[in-house]
TrEMBL record:
It holds the Pfam family DUF5999. This is Uncharacterized protein. It comes from Nonomuraea rhodomycinica. InterPro entries: DUF5999.
């Protein structure tokens, strides 16, 4: 799906959120990444195979 050089990370890789944004919809709270991942503003993900990844914000430092 990606035509960038270097290629964007695959949807199954740990750094999948580093892919380029193909379509941004901030008014609706989501963006489509080049690797087919839907990234939600709460940091949740929907992978191309239908797998849901729960929001994973970094913990606040004390």
């Amino acid at each position: 799906m990606c035509s960038h050089f270097p290629a964007c990370p695959a949807a199954g890789s740990a750094d999948r959120e580093a892919a380029h944004v193909v379509s941004a919809h901030p008014d609706q709270g989501w963006s489509l990444l080049c690797n087919g991942v839907v990234l939600f503003e709460d940091t949740g993900l929907l992978l191309p195979d239908g797998t849901v990844v729960a929001p994973h914000r970094a913990p606040a430092l004390a």
